[in-house]
Write a sequence for this structure.
């Protein structure tokens, strides 16, 4: 319990937590069930190349997303690369800068130019009103990102893509188990890609998938993830190795078995933060549309330093000192990272909302490894920090001087 500024670990006090609290601590699920699957896999001696676990995993993910096809892959980045290539996307692609760097890199990796679009004012999502300004004769596609699992403006992007003859793909890395207007994420656009990285709502250690209702696209992606093989000795496409392993699918299946419990735990955490952080001027908890399905995997705060008297960055340093490893996702925005910063040095002039947002956003520890008691302690600390924002800032400045 902190009562004076000296109690803060950043200013010499003892850290609130002995063990670090992470944003992305993996959900494990039923260990016994996982081990049993691994034993079976070893007995079968079938470790990769479209094995039975991968096929079962694909069927269950397709059912969850209410789509015809799920093509499981090594990770979300490879899933995006293959989806983009199989969809014939080239030239320039419009996407938000406020996303994980992989969304841009998966394009640049294939010599496709990412064109960064601003977020809508007050939102964490691409601004559909700005998309058309970014279209050039080289534009072939739009990628919308369902940041934090909250759907981006799907209807508006679909309308623009259809009218302008562009492909539309969604980065649904955060959005498994979420819905838009009552329909599960996964079936929108030409395809949506998912991530099952260790830090995600559902994890397969590393993993990803593309989900789609397009039969031809799904076929092409299946070949492309397997070197382009269309038969035993026949190769029809240039391909890569994007195959999900059996052990990854075993973990994915085990996570799927307890998905409802993970959502319940995430939702409990979210509610605990909601209760603990209301009524503090200058901070805003990212709100999910509770009439839809949500996975509540991310707990996101926006901090307005003009009101709190303390910057988001100083709050991060204070929390880290207490062993609360909050993250600044997605600071500083893709356009401020290389090679894009050098390629497009003036991009920020068109990305003022993104620039502002990346100064405010903070991702707090959640997931099944974080308890409600931990969250109460984190909220108490945040209250204390914000009640003393100005004084802490002055101390920190003299500390650094
Ligand atoms: N699109 C979007 C919108 C994405 O967010 C991502 C990935 C992708 C596409 C690409 O999907 P993948 O190719 O990754 O499947 C992390 C994740 O590595 C990344 O998957 C995720 N987004 C991104 C938002 O976060 P880092 O570099 O911040 O991860 P890292 O290693 O710092 O871990 C985050 C926290 O989790 C740390 O506090 C430590 C903790 N952690 C991590 C791992 C791996 C654990 O406690 N255990 C673990 O095993 O990117």
């Amino acid at each position: 319990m902190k009562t004076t500024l000296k109690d803060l670990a950043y200013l010499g006090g003892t850290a609130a937590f002995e063990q670090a609290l992470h944003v992305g601590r993996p959900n494990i699920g039923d260990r016994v069930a996982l081990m049993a699957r691994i034993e079976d896999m070893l007995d079968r001696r079938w470790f990769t190349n479209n094995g039975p676990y991968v096929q079962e995993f694909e069927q269950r993910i397709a059912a969850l997303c209410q789509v015809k096809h799920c093509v499981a892959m090594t990770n979300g980045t490879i899933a995006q690369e293959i989806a983009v290539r199989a969809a014939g996307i080239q030239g320039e692609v419009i996407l938000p800068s406020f996303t994980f760097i992989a969304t841009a890199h998966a394009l640049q990796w294939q010599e496709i130019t990412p064109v960064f679009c601003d977020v809508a004012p007050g939102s964490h999502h691409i601004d559909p009103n700005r998309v058309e300004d970014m279209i050039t004769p080289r534009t072939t596609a739009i990628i919308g990102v369902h940041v934090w699992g909250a759907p981006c403006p799907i209807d508006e992007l679909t309308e623009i893509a259809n009218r302008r003859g562009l492909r539309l793909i969604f980065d649904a890395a955060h959005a498994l188990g979420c819905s838009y207007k009552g329909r599960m994420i996964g079936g929108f656009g030409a395809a949506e890609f998912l991530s099952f990285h260790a830090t995600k709502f559902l994890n397969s250690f590393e993993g990803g998938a593309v989900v789609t209702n397009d039969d031809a696209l799904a076929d092409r992606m299946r070949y492309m993830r397997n070197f382009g093989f269309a038969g035993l000795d026949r190769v029809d496409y240039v391909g890569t190795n994007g195959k999900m392993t059996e052990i990854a699918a075993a973990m994915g299946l085990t996570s799927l078995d307890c998905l409802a419990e993970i959502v319940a735990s995430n939702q409990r955490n979210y509610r605990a933060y909601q209760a603990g952080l209301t009524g503090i001027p200058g901070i805003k908890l990212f709100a999910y549309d509770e009439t839809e399905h949500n996975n509540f995997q991310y707990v996101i705060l926006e901090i307005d330093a003009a009101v709190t008297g303390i910057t988001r960055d100083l709050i991060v340093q204070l929390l880290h000192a207490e062993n609360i490893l909050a993250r600044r996702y997605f600071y500083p925005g893709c356009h401020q990272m290389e090679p894009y910063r050098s390629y497009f040095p003036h991009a920020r002039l068109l990305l003022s909302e993104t620039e502002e947002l990346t100064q405010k956003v903070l991702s707090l520890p959640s997931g099944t490894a974080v308890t409600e008691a931990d969250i109460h302690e984190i909220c108490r600390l945040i209250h204390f920090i914000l009640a003393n924002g100005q004084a802490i800032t002055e101390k920190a400045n003299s500390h650094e001087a």
About this structure: The first helix runs from residue 31 to 44. The chain has a mean pLDDT of 96.
